[in-house]
Every structure is written in C-alpha cells, then in structure tokens.
Write a structure and sequence with these properties.
The chain has 440 residues and is mostly beta strands. The chain has helices at residues 3-19, 21-24, 65-71, 315-335, 339-352; strands at 45-60, 79-95, 98-110, 115-131, 134-141, 173-183, 188-200, 213-224, 227-235, 242-252, 255-272, 278-295, 300-308, 360-368, 377-386, 392-403, 406-416, 428-439.
C-alpha cells in the first residue's frame, strides 16, 4: 500500500466527516443529560490525556531558497507527505497540602528525513500549599508568562509558542518557584509575588543557556483598577538580563485589550551578508506586543495582535540571508561542493531558523462558533504577515467536536510573498493536514 494511497484515503475520510456535520449535529444525536452525584465529587487523583493522528501534505516550492537549502541533494517532487502521531498523558495525585502533577508527550513522525519517535516529560512537579495564600512548586514546569495569544516577548522562562497553533502544550524547565497572594481593599485588589530559581547544569536545563549557572527570575502581579498587570525579570548568567511588563483589561464584557513589553540587555545577534560574511552585533533588544480579543453577539471571536521583535532581523538582513543561500546553491550545482550550503545550515540554526525571525508581524484570527446553527462546528481563519516585506501565511480551519471526546480538524495553510521575502522563500507553497484527536 503506497503513501499516496494512504493519503488519498485519509483526505476522503476527512471530507466525508465534514460533509456529514449537519447530519451529525441534528437533535437526534444530542446526548441525554443525566445527573450523578459521584460525578461532582472531587477525587484525589486524575488521569487523562489524548491520542492524535495527523497526516500532512506539503506542496513544495522548488525555486525557494529554503527548499534549495534543505533539499539540495534530494529530489522530492511536487509534494511531500508527512505522518504524525502523538500520545499525551497527564496525571495528578493530591494528599493533604501536596499535589503531584506529571504530563508526558510522545511524538511519532515519518517524513522525508526519517522515521522518528521520542517521548519527553513536559511537566513533572510537586506542589505544596501550606496555606491558601502560599504555593511552592518544585520540578519541571511550564510557567506561561505573558498575556499575548500568538507571541509572548515576556515569557523569559518558557519555550516560544508556534503562532500557527499557539494552544499546544510546551515542554517546561526544571525550576523551584513559589506564589504568595494577598488580597487588599481599595483600587489595588490583589498582589502576588512569584520568585523562581532556574538551575542550569549539564543534563539539567542545558538548553536554557550557559551551563553551571543558577538563574533567578521573578514576577509581581497586581490587580489594579480591574487591570491585570505583571512585572517580570530574569538574571543569573545563563542568559543576559531581561525585564518585562504586561497587562490585560476587559474594556467591556466582550472586549479585552492586552499588551507586553520586554527588554533583553546585551543581546547578541549573528547575521550573514550575501557574500557569506558572518557578523555579530550586541545591543539592548526591545520587543513589544499589543492585541485585542473581541467576541460578538453572534459568537464570532476576533483576535488581533501586533508584534515588534526587537531581536529580529531587518528586511535587508533577511534578503542577504536568502541571497547567500541562492549563491551557495549555484556554487553547489557548478562545483558539486556543499560547503557553502552547510555554512547556510549552520547560520540558520538558532538564528534565521527561529520561529518568526524578522522584526514586525501582524496576527489576525477569526473564528465562528456554530454558524448556520450547525452544532459543534467551528470554522476559523488565521492570517500572519511580515509587515515589512508583505509576505504572509493564510490558514483556514474546520473543527468539529460533535462526537464525544473526539476532535476532527481539517486545516490548510497557504503561503504567499515575493522572492527574498520571509514567507516567499519557505520550502512549501501550501500545507493540508487532518487532525483526529481523542481525549480520555
């Protein structure tokens, strides 16, 4: 059975699922509600998670710089298939003032490169709550700092989100932290202090930054005049010192405004010119985000965010990078030597290959709950654009949740942009994926 045959059957199944939404959403399929007192009793333990299948089809752009960089010694044809599966498990156990929480994630991927499977512990920490005002956590944890939906420039201790799917769980770091909360009278209603210790040694948070360091971070939360405000900092040597502030406020019941501002001291940026010369620049990088979330009376949700990435590359720096790759590829065709292409791969890693490496982005997501009274059906569309070079991705999505514990999502991604622009030089022109996720 060929991969193409499997892919065609998967797409056919997906199409049948979504064409059947109206029928499945009829009242005849609604579950009868029953009341069971045992269901509301709090249990000392919890076990759950999900299993997921996600095949993806990529339409390749053979003229793009990143296609030349990644596939220079391969001929992948016009399309590329990728098969993904995931199993995410989580569990918790509470006794007295203590709570143990563990979340693991197992990913399987079969792609043009290889067939790979890996299991990662996303979170595993012990939480102690000696009083209603104090909580102490020790272990691997995701802190989730920041108010932004697609980006979080103030998330100094978290891994970066993927704006294409920002609600995915992320791997945390091993930390020791505490939360102390105090309620007050007056305009300042709540104060919370969160100190965090992040050790970085070999095999302990070694991807966080320079090893053999103990880093300190902190967050001060204020609920002031019904506005959520956070002040953050990180210092210690594994990374250069950084400071940030965020806020969130509901202007009306359905309209929320949020923002973030961060400063990274002595940030070092490595970049390459069109001739292959590598430079390094050190400066204080200032990044900020402003966004809104609006819910209409018809259950249409709008999320709009502007992101200014002070550590990002300018349009000319991105053009030089793509121009160098084109030059390196031409050299490879003429001489057979891939030395320059390997240099391009090296500078791409942790530099141009980061999520959203440029300076300015705009994010817009529109989702509509149950249009035309189709129960459990939510279509949406997401648009992310590089403002400077006007390249973009556009991702329509159909989500159906009418089958108990099962999510069915059909999603596409279309990429547009001129040559030497960020998205215009991506290795693919489009992507289609179908996700089946079962919760238990």
């Amino acid at each position: 059975m060929t991969l193409r045959y499997l892919w065609d059957n998967i797409l056919t199944t997906a199409l049948i699922c979504f064409l059947s939404i109206s029928y499945l959403a009829s009242p005849a399929f609604a579950e009868e509600y029953t009341f069971d007192l045992s269901e509301i009793e709090k249990k000392p333990y919890h076990i759950g998670g999900y299993a997921e299948l996600r095949p993806v089809l990529f339409g390749l752009d053979k003229d793009a710089s990143l296609y030349k960089l990644l596939f220079y010694n391969r001929d992948e044809g016009a399309t590329l298939e990728e098969y993904n599966a995931a199993l995410q498990l989580e569990g918790s156990l509470e006794k007295g003032i203590s709570r143990l929480f563990v979340r693991t994630n197992t990913d399987y991927k079969k792609s043009y490169l290889s067939e790979d499977q890996k299991t990662i512990v996303y979170e595993a920490y012990l939480s102690l709550k000696p009083s209603s005002a104090l909580t102490i956590d020790m272990g691997k944890k995701t802190l989730k700092w920041g108010k932004g939906y697609a980006w979080n420039p103030v998330a100094f201790i978290d891994r970066p989100k993927n704006p294409d799917d920002p609600e995915l769980s992320l791997e945390g770091f091993i930390v020791a932290s505490a939360d102390y909360i105090k309620s007050l009278e007056g305009p300042l209603k709540t104060v919370s202090i969160t100190p965090v210790i992040i050790p970085v040694y070999k095999d302990i948070n070694e991807t966080f930054g320079e090893v053999d360091k103990v880093n300190l971070a902190g967050k001060l939360y204020l609920l002031l005049y019904d506005t959520d405000i956070d002040l953050m900092l990180l210092t210690g040597g594994s990374k250069s010192a950084r400071y940030g502030v965020d806020f969130s406020r509901n202007i009306t019941t359905n309209f929320e405004l949020h923002g973030e501002f961060a400063v990274i001291e002595d940030y070092r940026k490595r970049f390459i010119d069109s001739n292959g010369n590598i430079f390094e620049k050190e400066f204080d990088a200032e990044s900020w985000l402003a966004g809104i979330r609006y819910l209409t009376e018809r259950d249409t949700t709008y999320i709009l965010e502007y992101y200014r990435n002070g550590a990002g590359f300018t349009t000319s720096e991105m053009r030089d990078y793509f121009s160098f790759i084109d030059t390196a590829y031409d050299s490879y065709l003429a001489s057979g030597s891939d030395m320059l292409l390997k240099k391009g791969l090296n500078i791409t890693e942790e530099n141009y290959g980061r999520m959203n490496p440029a300076r300015e982005y705009l994010y817009l997501r529109i989702s509509q709950k149950e249009p035309f009274d189709i129960l459990y059906f939510t279509p949406s569309i997401t648009w992310v654009t590089n403002i400077a070079d006007k390249s973009f991705t556009l991702s329509p999505e159909l989500l159906y949740t009418g089958i108990t514990n099962l999510d069915l999502r059909l999603k596409a991604g279309f990429i547009g942009g001129d040559r030497l622009s960020e998205y215009g030089e991506r290795q693919s022109d489009y992507r289609v994926e179908f996700r089946m996720r079962y919760y238990f």
